[in-house]
Specification:
The structure is a homodimer. Chain A is α/β, with parallel strands linked by helices. Chain A folds into 2 domains: 2-152, Rossmann fold (3-Layer(aba) Sandwich), CATH 3.40.50; 158-252, Orthogonal Bundle (N-(1-d-carboxylethyl)-l-norvaline Dehydrogenase, domain 2). Chain A has helices at residues 10-21, 34-44, 70-76, 132-145, 154-184, 193-202, 208-211, 221-230, 234-252; strands at residues 2-6, 25-30, 47-49, 60-63, 83-86, 102-108, 125-129, 149-151.
């Protein structure tokens, strides 16, 4: 497929690379920011533009933009052919419906950071199309990238995104807290890396309920109290109390 | 070394196996519960007892018990020779000092679950001894199991334990929330496994600050508001609000 990317951030970069490596043709990158557009276009050996008037013809337009930027870009696009899709978990497909004939969503359930490669073959990709033919096209496209293609409605996708926020974004924030606590005690963060890997790895074979350990799980109130007294940061105290309370109360049920 | 374990739970089981595999002799398992004592002793092809009066002579007594059980077991032990150590993050070494001549702590920074093997060679182990000779003995013992032995004071160890509670126990609780949200929407938990592995894997090469992604990190208030409205469970709402607020406010600083 001939594909144009609108956006040149982390999702666009990782997805464009994966599509190119799997035989698709990336014909153009649009970004408001010349540096971003040009950098990604050069990496992919393709063209770029910084004005939406300069968009070329393509089979597929991928809006890999932050959630709140999608609508405004949609409003400015003047090409009505092709399939128009976004990659956002929490944006409804119908953001396209007043403007385009063929549209949909292509949501890879993964966290994308600069300088960290992704193996797309294991990334679940959730597609939604405005009709059966578009759904099938997007599903087939997903199959060229991953062993785990799925169809999901906009309502399901927002639930997936919320679950991902808990499992990924908030877990990473807990790592930041842990790193900060260690730093303040002159201990290096890397001593926690095996524990963090094992915590994630356990739930590949155990359910998260089975995998739960720790003082709150054991209802060890003495240790909970002692640790809470030692934590100085008020924000961290709040999270410690709330999480411990919820973990213990599940075990009391 | 001839080693006796007091306790037959997850830590005792994993640690006893690792010690045996590395050439140490486990001479006895004590547990109040006959089934636990006997099961672990049989696995290790050694003796067991369910009364502290029946403890044998050994070089090392490892109290791998829940934090609050250690003191009461210490009070009942009538053997004063050998080195007496516990494996708890949040228990001070001085719990042993009124009773024994040689004592210390041997704290493996890892999460141990039944039915999940551990590669000890990457597990950081923090030792503390009542004197230099004991510290050295415990450090050497740690070296037989892991490439990452460290010395740490009781004060440092409790900080390590608190950091581990955030990075491991609380992360796992977030996985439980995510699993629950998916279940309620007829979506299988295993679609989150690649995301969870990638989240943990990222911080092996990026700092947790660099690895942060998500709507709160982008200060995408519209998505935060929408997601918060969709979450029904009041407990989950509390965690969502608090974590999002803390993540956004870090970026505002």
């Amino acid at each position: 497929m001939k594909i144009i990317f609108l956006g040149a951030g982390n999702v666009a970069t990782h997805l464009a690379w994966a599509l190119k490596e799997n035989g698709h043709e990336i014909v153009q990158i649009y970004s408001r920011t010349q540096l971003s557009a040009e950098t990604l276009a050069q990496q992919l050996d393709t063209d770029f533009c910084i004005s939406l008037d300069k968009l070329k013809q393509a089979d597929l337009y991928i809006y890999a933009l932050s959630d709140n930027a999608i609508e405004s870009v949609v409003n400015q696009v003047n090409i009505y052919s092709g399939i128009h899709i976004h990659t956002a978990g929490s944006v409804n497909m119908n953001i396209f419906e007043r403007k385009f004939e063929k549209f949909g969503v292509f949501y890879p359930l993964q966290t994308f950071s600069k300088d960290k490669e992704i193996d797309f073959s294991q990334v679940p990709i959730f597609v939604e199309g405005c009709n059966k033919a578009v759904s099938q096209t997007l599903y087939n496209l997903a199959k060229t990238l991953t062993n785990r293609p799925f169809e999901a409605s906009s309502a399901q996708r927002i639930q997936l995104h919320i679950a991902a926020v808990f499992a990924c974004n908030f877990s990473n924030y807990l790592y930041r807290i842990a790193a900060d606590l260690l730093l303040k005690n002159n201990l290096p963060f890397d001593i926690l890396q095996p524990l963090i890997m094992e915590t994630a790895s356990k739930i590949q074979t155990l359910s998260p309920d089975e995998a739960q350990t720790g003082p709150a799980h054991r209802q060890d109130m003495k240790t909970l109290q002692k640790q809470l007294e030692i934590i100085e940061n008020e924000d961290y105290k709040k999270i410690y109390s709330e999480m411990s309370e919820q973990i213990s109360s599940r075990n009391r049920k």
